[in-house]
TrEMBL record:
Peptidase M20 dimerisation domain sequence ranges: 235-336
NCBIfam families, per the entry: hydantase (TIGR01879), PRK09290.1-5 (NF006771)
Name of the protein in question: Allantoate deiminase
Upper taxonomic lineage: Bacteria, Bacillati, Bacillota, Bacilli, Bacillales
Domain of life: Bacteria
Length: 435
């Protein structure tokens, strides 16, 4: 789909090339398409995208709609103090429980698959089990996490962090959204309370595993011509704020051999940044995405350049190696140009690896459900699985994204790929829910 899909054509576009042979084992692709379409109607933007910011009436409406579908599937529905929604499918024993799901909030003008696909995939498995009178050994919960995207408070994973106890309530109270509203004011408007939010932490000793389905948001699966992939780990970002400080001067009267041009040094540094990740890891990346030049005048030699480097990897030790190399290079370049350099780490999130045994079971499910060779790939973006993966066995399945587009109205995954992923998820969850 090269253009933004108008909503009245969204369902038709999903089912037009759908292979109905994928409707088996209780899974129904048309039902998935219908539910994706109905969610897409909530918070629809003029550009055909999604605007369901956290703790707004739009996110609430989406949650309430999924709650109705959960009840249709026979799930026991509850909501915790952070607004996380859980739909329980009782197993032969109450504990432990296996969780699967994602989120329904979006960025300001996002797509229709990021988040909702993971929720509907998890729900479709429960619906399939109910329709086929299957009862797993372990109980199973479909989950919707609040505020995964972080678009409102520049944070993210808010609901999943609250559930795992990894949230600083005092810090949350001081947050302001884009309208200047406090965090407490915002959640109260959504029917929540700070006290309830604070008590959303859950006893994770009863959680056997968490599995999240998500669109890839990249092109690896598309290049491999595969519908689904197995995530090896979720990268943790390190952000470095770097300032090259030289000396501003007149562009006409300062000889070339008597300059301390901060931009020339910064340019040399930026050109070197892409070389470092591949030297230590095939999953590491580094990006300079923000750069400011001062005083930024046409006829003034740049006296200072401030930039930010985003470094990510799914392995802590190799990420640290990239960070060290980048800092050393910045210092060496500054010294060569006889200027100063200042480096400050503003973010450092620990990556989360997917355990080998979780990957192995997922690989077996890919083979059994689809008869194809499993493909493994890292996740460069954060997900709710990252918050849970620090405490419980975690896995992620990626669905192929057309052109790798995400956080954009053009975001698209074919219904065939979505349903194939759900078949893998169903097989995988049945393995995880076995005693």
């Amino acid at each position: 789909m090269s253009t933004v899909i108008q909503l009245d054509k969204f369902y038709t576009a999903l089912v037009s090339e759908y292979d109905k042979a994928l409707n088996h084992s209780g899974i129904n692709g048309e039902r998935v398409a219908e539910r994706l379409t109905k969610l897409s109607q909530i918070g629809l933007t003029e550009q055909g995208g999604s605007r369901r910011i956290a703790f707004t009436p739009e996110e609430r409406q989406a949650k309430e709609l999924v709650k109705e579908w959960m009840k249709e599937a026979g799930l026991d529905v509850r909501e915790d103090g952070a607004g996380n929604v859980f739909g329980l499918f009782e197993g032969k024993q109450q504990k432990p429980v296996v969780l699967s799901g994602s989120h329904v909030d979006s960025v300001p003008n996002g797509g229709h698959f990021d988040g909702p696909l993971g929720v509907l995939a998890a729900l479709e498995v429960a619906q399939a089990w109910r329709d086929s009178d299957y009862q797993p050994d372990y109980s199973y919960e479909v989950v919707i996490f609040s505020d995964e995207e972080g678009a409102r408070f520049n944070g993210g994973l808010t609901g999943s962090r609250a559930m795992t106890g990894d949230i600083d309530i005092a810090k949350q109270k001081h947050l302001k959204d884009f309208d200047g509203k406090s965090f407490e004011e915002v959640i109260v408007s959504d029917g929540l309370t700070m006290e309830g939010f604070q008590h959303a932490e859950r006893d994770l000793s009863d959680v056997a595993a968490f599995v999240e389905v998500h669109i890839e948001q990249g092109k690896r699966l598309e290049k491999e011509d595969l519908p689904v992939g197995i995530v090896t780990g979720i990268a943790g970002p390190t952000w470095l704020n770097i300032a090259f400080v030289g000396e501003a001067g007149h562009a006409g009267n300062t000889p070339m051999n008597d300059r301390k041009d901060a931009l020339v040094a910064a340019s040399e540094f930026v050109a070197n940044v892409p070389n470092f990740p591949s030297q230590v890891s095939d999953s590491a990346v580094a990006t300079v995405g923000k750069l400011e030049v001062f005083p930024n005048g046409v006829n003034v030699i740049p006296g200072e350049v401030r930039l930010t480097v985003d470094i990510r990897d799914i392995h802590e030790h190799t990420k640290d190696q990239v960070v060290t190399s980048i800092i050393q290079t910045a210092e060496e370049i500054a010294a060569d140009h006889q200027i100063e350099v200042q480096v400050k780490t503003t973010m450092n999130v620990q990556p989360v690896a997917v355990k080998e045994e979780m990957q192995e079971k997922a690989a077996l499910s890919v083979q059994e459900a689809l008869g194809i060779q499993p493909f493994h790939l890292p996740s460069g973006a954060g997900h709710d699985a990252m918050a849970l993966g620090r405490y419980v066995p975690m896995a992620m399945l990626f669905t192929r994204s057309k052109d790798g587009i995400s956080h954009n109205p053009k975001e698209w995954s074919s219904l065939n790929d979505c349903v194939k992923t759900i078949h893998v998820l169903k097989n995988y969850l049945e393995k995880l829910c076995q005693e």
